[in-house]
Design goal:
mainly alpha; 2 domains
């Protein structure tokens, strides 16, 4: 309303107003596009920095574990464990430390025997290999991306602007349809319009979150698929306004399903044979049997 009054007061024609709106939209699109692209590159660079810090500590710890296993003299076996324990404590403060490695380090620091040493060495080597693969993948996507990744990186920064345009479109559609229909504000048709609006906005937000999620671990992938299903459900609005309540009900059910998808402890996160948790339980059971 205020924009229309300002246009009429300044004798601006429809063509001029369209040119102005188009120019503002282009400026907003370019600003959002380059800002989003810069933020993605900053996140990738920050991830590489955390990977570099983690790998640096892990590599030093792995090398010291190998030296301890190969040490034969008594002087080396007396001096080296203290520096190794200190380095393992530094590993616990690594940016990308995992639960499995934390449990292996705690088990080794409690009982420094050969089985603990071998278990820690295997877990550490596996983590180093995993982080090296992730580091290589990020570097390859930044410096030499393939055709698919390059095309996805080209269109992905445009998603925020597209989401904003879609939300604005549904707002304008709701604004135009509510006063233009011959029904009361509290009628069922009015409720269906509001339900369709909420459903479509929820679909746009879900699609935005699914596409813009940076990490690709198993938990995030499950949530991303669920968000895409919520977005895809909104396509059923093409069937008509009467389907809006059912579509929103399906989206609410899918959203509630996400709370049941809390990640369970994986096999790596569970206590392994010889872990501190299992040893404590076995010691308690042994003491109870002796009593």
């Amino acid at each position: 309303m205020y924009l229309a009054a300002w246009i009429n007061a300044n004798d601006i024609t429809d063509t001029q107003s369209r040119i102005m709106i188009t120019g503002l939209a282009i400026i907003l699109f370019l600003w959002l596009y380059f800002r989003t692209a810069r933020s993605f590159r900053s996140m990738a660079t920050a991830r590489l920095e955390r990977l570099h810090q983690t790998l640096e500590i892990y590599s030093r710890a792995a090398g010291m574990l190998d030296n301890e296993a190969a040490a034969d003299s008594s002087s080396e076996s007396e001096q080296e464990p203290e520096s190794l324990i200190l380095l393992l404590q530094q590993c616990k403060a690594a940016p990308l430390i995992t639960t499995e490695l934390l449990e292996a380090i705690d088990a080794y620091t409690r009982e420094r025997d050969a089985s603990r040493h071998l278990q820690l060495q295997r877990v550490l080597d596996r983590e180093i290999s995993r982080r090296i693969r992730e580091q290589s993948s990020i570097i390859r996507s930044l410096d030499n991306p393939g055709w698919g990744i390059g095309f996805w990186k080209l269109i992905r920064p445009a998603v925020p602007f597209a989401a904003m345009v879609l939300i604005l479109y549904w707002c304008l559609q709701l604004y135009q349809e509510l006063p233009g229909q011959s029904f009361t504000v509290l009628s069922w048709t009015s409720a269906e319009l509001w339900i369709r609006f909420v459903s479509c906005v929820a679909a746009v937000i879900s699609f935005y979150l699914a596409v813009m999620t940076p990490r690709k671990d198993s938990t995030r992938i499950s949530y991303r698929v669920l968000a895409l299903l919520i977005s895809a459900a909104a396509l059923a609005h093409l069937a008509g306004l009467t389907a809006a309540p059912y579509i929103l009900a399906v989206q609410v059910i899918l959203f509630a399903w996400g709370f049941a998808m809390n990640p369970h402890r994986s096999r790596r996160d569970r206590p392994y044979a010889g872990s501190a948790d299992l040893l404590e339980v076995s010691e308690e059971e042994h003491m109870q049997t002796e009593k």
